[in-house]
Amino acid sequence: MAEAIQSRRKTGWGGVALGLMFWLPLLSGILSRIIKHSVWFRDYGAVACGAEKWLQGRGLYDQGQSCADLVDPLSYIYPPYLAQALAEPVRLLGQERLLWIYASIYALALIALLWLVLRSAKGVTVAKRSWFAGFLTGSTVYWGNVAIIAHALIGVCAVALRKHPLALIAAIAVAAAVKPVFLIFAVVFVLMPWPLWRRFAYLAACIGLGAAPTGYFLVAGGALAEQWREIVVWAVYTDKIGDGFFGWLSLADAPPAATASSVAYLGFAGAATLAALLMAEALKLDLERRVLLGLSLAVMLIPRLMPYDFWLIGPGLLGAAAAASAIAPRASRWVERFYLGGGVIALAGNLADQADWSQRVAMIVVTLAFVGFAGWIVFKGLAAPRLLWLRIWSGSDLSAEPAQA
Q1: 190: closest CA among 294, 268, 271, 270?
Q2: Residue 142 half-sphere exposure, CB side, CA atoms within 13 Å?
Q3: What is the pTM of this model?
Q4: How far apart, in whole angstroms, are the C-alpha atoms of residue 147 and residue 105?
């Protein structure tokens, strides 16, 4: 309680009130859902319906079929082994009991994400960490998407990286088996204070293990694999392209599925990863800040960024800005203002029901501020290129460096 009071005094009650305001889209969306008695957990319903179809021998990816035990589930677009794994629990427990079990796990995942977002951090107040809550909407909670559990699992295992790096590999591999896009979180290993060979060894192991189930299914799955590939292409490139890189392309009327778009994405991903790496080494970030920065970077790199993917984007960006405040206070304040600006744009757009464009513009602002900040750090010579390369090549000895404020 004393720490909370001290934090409020340091931030000011105006800052606390501003921080609470960013949670309005999430809270109002949930409240509206409750008042209207709307259907919850439709995303989970898609998986549960897939399991029911598998038990009954129906077409798993047949969009014209529904499930009598579920109310208005969404289309099943996951690999078949997720439905197969859930089929026996559905048979033994029934859909209603299984839904309550899933809801309990989902609630624990939400608590874990709130802890990761709002827990104490050096130089970053709770009010600042709330700026990125403006990207969250009620659908983040009430759709019941399995991505919430995946983000929580990866985030918790990442924080435990110092003692259990293999746990993060396992968490990413499990999440990627369900949604291959979660392989992006392997980028966390690139920012670790290890020799370069060890970073890439962990990166390769994580990608190889995580991609194996999907790769094997695509090669050996026959007609079912082709059906899955077609529905994924439709969902990613046509149905909902999200607020990340694909959403930015839509603002420019560029087709996400085009070869030029893929090349542009690779350039963007490379530039953002390099920016994070240079930032981590030039600012001599400690292990916790590197992990959080890696999680934030991974979220930015998700090309089809959905509302439920925004949870972990803020702590790493703000942590790096706070680390720079001791050597470049003015630049640190400016980059924080841009992050705040992005949060305000997202907040205003969600409250005004204009999220189709506001979320994308807000992410462009945040991403440009992040990459620009890294470029400014290098341009100002806060670390010599040779020293940066040595730190990347041989690894950072964090134990020999003073603790950061």
Answers
A1: 294
A2: 19
A3: 0.91
A4: 12
Q: What DSSP string describes 225-291?
A: HHHHHHHHHHIIIII---SSHHHHHHHTT--TTSHHHHHHHHHHHHHHHHHHHHHHHHTT--HHHHH
Residue 326 DSSP one-character state: T
In this structure, are residues 287 and 405 in contact, taking their beta carbons and an 8 Å threshold? no
Are 167 and 394 contacting, i.e. CB atoms less than 8 angstroms apart? no
What pLDDT, in 10s, does the model give residues 305-320?
A: 999 999 999 999 999 9
Rounded to the nearest angstrom, the gap between the alpha carbon of residue 369 and the centroid of all alpha carbons in its chain is 18
Residue 339 tokens read as 């992050």
CB 44 within 8 A of CB 67: no
Distance of alpha carbon 229 from alpha carbon 232, whole angstroms: 5
Which of 269, 318, 297, 281 is closest to 194 using CA atoms? 281
Question: Which residues have CB under 8 Å from 32's CB, separation 6+?
Answer: 38, 138
Q: What is the pLDDT of residues 293-305, one digit of tens each?
A: 999 999 999 999 9
Does residue 168 contact residue 365 with C-beta atoms inside 8 Å? no
